[in-house]
Design brief:
The protein is α+β, with helices and mostly antiparallel strands and 342 residues long. It has eleven helices and 18 strands. It is globular. The N and C termini lie far apart (66 Å). Bound molecules: adenosine-5'-diphosphate and magnesium ion. The site of magnesium ion has 6 residues, from strand 10 and helix 9.
């Protein structure tokens, strides 16, 4: 009998010891730069510090795939071979461009990856980044008309070749620009990578203004993501309370812009006018499980304005929040379940 009790006691002590041994996730944090923007991370892992791996992955994505400026990137190579017939694409790029064409169609042309000649003409990103000096000159109507003639996803030909690779044909002078979806694609890559690493239990990673949440924090509290107030970008107009994996993207006229005679020239171009988009919206936030969609739709909805934007978000089952020029907030019913105004 005595032996039995000692046995039970030892067994219970073993169980206690094993329970105590389960490693608690440790929080790793970092702020760094990649893809021309600030990356801030908070990762909860039971393994080694994973933050450098995240930065490496983003830099590789930029270097191999997304960059318009680095020769090593697929986008650079596509643009360099415009007008030379079918350009074979990697599977990854084939899928990205197929998805882009779908958003172009469903947004009635508001989202257009062939916008590059116009973004280069306006060159707002470089001005906003302080890369240029002197005074900014608004492009004239002839230059805009010429750039517009080189844009339009209707001119893209994307087809499967005989050996089952997707081929893209760009007319001479056409170029593509994945600036509107790069951060979203990055969030999808990051989430896929986190899912493959058992040691990483939870994460919140911001890629510029886009935010990826993943898993559950060790203390089980939800993620709380601020939505910037376009009228005072140093403040939040509200907070999203989220659990699990989500992607949040915001497009607005308050981040990269140049002000000329009281008119704000920002970096999102309306393909229909060839000029910075003017709608009833100052900022749009999209919440989706899919990073590509959250990013593509935020740009498209900014161009479309709140009414058509709500319809587009509905088509994709994404949640949308619009901050209108008069300060009013308009959102999908689903968004209202996560968003709390400040
Ligand atoms: P941010 O990059 O500031 O987060 P967006 O996701 O809205 O904002 O992307 C803006 C970028 O998208 C621009 O810098 C430009 O490269 C590109 N772009 C601008 N207008 C359009 C458009 N109508 N369709 C697709 N891409 C666009
Ligand atoms: Mg976008």
């Amino acid at each position: 009998m005595k032996r039995f009790f000692i046995g039970v006691l030892l067994f219970m002590l073993l169980l206690l010891a094993l329970g105590g041994c389960e490693t608690k996730p440790v929080r790793f944090q970092s702020v760094d730069t990649a893809m021309g923007t600030v990356i801030s991370q908070q990762l909860y892992s039971v393994g080694q510090d994973p933050t450098d791996g995240v930065i490496d992955l983003l830099r590789e994505l930029e270097r191999k795939t997304l960059s318009r400026r680095l020769e090593s990137a697929e986008v650079f190579q596509i643009n360099a071979h415009a007008g030379e017939g079918g350009i074979p694409l990697t599977d990854k790029m084939g899928k990205i461009l197929t998805d882009c064409l779908e958003v172009w169609e469903k947004s009635q042309g508001a989202f257009d990856v062939t916008i590059c000649p116009l973004t280069e003409l306006w060159n707002i990103d470089a001005w906003a980044a302080g890369e240029l000096s002197g005074s900014y000159e608004i492009p004239g109507p002839e230059a805009i008309a010429h750039a517009r003639s080189l844009c339009g996803s209707d001119k893209l030909i994307l087809r499967m070749s005989e050996n089952h690779t997707t081929e893209l044909t760009l007319l001479p002078g056409m170029r593509i620009d994945l600036g509107a979806v790069g951060k979203g694609i990055a969030m999808d890559c990051l989430r896929d990578c986190l899912e493959k690493q058992d040691a990483i239990r939870a994460a919140v990673i911001t890629v510029g203004g886009s935010v990826l949440t993943y898993g559950e924090k060790p203390d089980r509290t939800p993620w709380r993501i601020s939505v910037t107030d376009p009228f005072d970008p140093s403040k939040a107009c509200g907070v999203l309370t989220l659990r699990g994996s989500w992607c949040v993207s915001t497009s607005g006229d308050y981040e990269r812009y140049v002000e000329i005679d009281g008119r704000r020239m920002h970096h999102i171009i309306d393909p229909k006018t060839g000029a910075p988009a003017q709608s009833d919206v100052r900022g749009v936030t999209i919440l989706s499980r899919d990073g590509f969609l959250s990013d593509a739709l935020s740009t498209a909805c900014f161009v479309l304005g709140s009414e058509k934007g709500l319809t587009l978000a509905g088509i994709y089952g994404a949640e949308a929040l619009f901050v209108l020029s008069d300060g009013t907030l308009v959102m999908t019913d689903g968004m209202a379940e996560y968003f709390e105004e400040k």
